[in-house]
Amino acid sequence: KNQVEQSPQSLIILEGKNCTLQCNYTVSPFSNLRWYKQDTGRGPVSLTIMTFSENTKSNGRYTATLDADTKQSSLHITASQLSDSASYICVVSQNAGNMLTFGGGTRLMVKP
Amino acid sequence: GAVVSQHPSWVICKSGTSVKIECRSLDFQATTMFWYRQFPKQSLMLMATSNEGSKATYEQGVEKDKFLINHASLTLSTLTVTSAHPEDSSFYICSASPMLEGQGLEAFFGQGTRLTVV
Predict the structure, then answer these.
(1) Position A16 confidence tier, pLDDT thresholds 50, 70, 90
(2) What average pLDDT score do residues B32-39 get?
(3) Cα separation of A47 and A75, whole Å?
(4) How many interface pairs between A and B have CB atoms less than 8 angstroms apart?
(5) Which A residues 16-45 touch B at CB under 8 Å?
(6) Cβ A93–B109 below 8 Å, yes or no?
(7) C-alpha of B66 from chain center
(8) Is the pLDDT of residue B7 over 90?
(9) Burial grade of B76 (CB within 10 A; 0-12, 13-18, 19 or more)
(10) Are B105 and A45 within 8 A, CB to CB?
């Protein structure tokens, strides 16, 4: 069964601190892995998309890693800001992206 | 990046009435769009795949007569919640995917529609 597991489910950190979110998947065949940020009451916004051959990809203060052998990914947020408070969703796609499996998300709260 | 626009952002309707939600790809054509439902503190659940010019494909457990999908053009898909009931209250999100060279399809999501049935 195709699954995407994210941890932790929720996380509270202080402004300025770093954090790392985890994503493990059992989706096969693998096409790509995406990280999305979803603000409350809004649609998800893409942060990164990585294919099989990519190990790391950055988007500003967000850095995603992918280990296709162990089927693990992480999203590292550097120097967190209050606006980083959101849900972060890991999504793995099959078949050139037409079939998506969503993780349950990690709810991040950044406190001043 | 590609833009997907969803309208309305929120809607309140009476039980028994129907509500139509629009999903538009603003700067690309999408032969396929997807409709999701999201309950509080949960992830997105795929409801159906909307195919331009043909019938939508519904996920198991989703009533096709209740959630009518029309994909009349390459830039517009609509979801109509018919005879809405309070249990249909939820956050509905659409997505569309342009082809990105070397990366396959990238999904871009609409802003979501908060439906409240009273």
Answers:
(1) very high
(2) 93
(3) 10
(4) 60
(5) 31-32, 34, 36, 41-45
(6) no
(7) 13
(8) yes
(9) middle
(10) no
Residue pLDDT, tens place only, A20-65: 999 999 988 888 899 999 999 999 999 999 988 899 999 999 999 9
User: Among B43, B103, B104, whose Cβ lies nearest the Cβ of A102?
Assistant: B43
Listed in order, strand segments (DSSP E) in chain A are: 4-7, 10-14, 19-25, 32-38, 45-51, 56-59, 62-67, 72-77, 86-94, 99-102, 106-111
pLDDT at A98: 67
A91·B114 Cβ contact <8 A: no
Give the position of tokens 């995406």: A34
Question: What DSSP character marks residue B59?
Answer: P
CB contact under 8 Å between B44 and A31, yes or no, is no
Q: In angstroms, rounded to a whole number, what is the distance separating the alpha carbons of residues A53 and A61?
A: 22
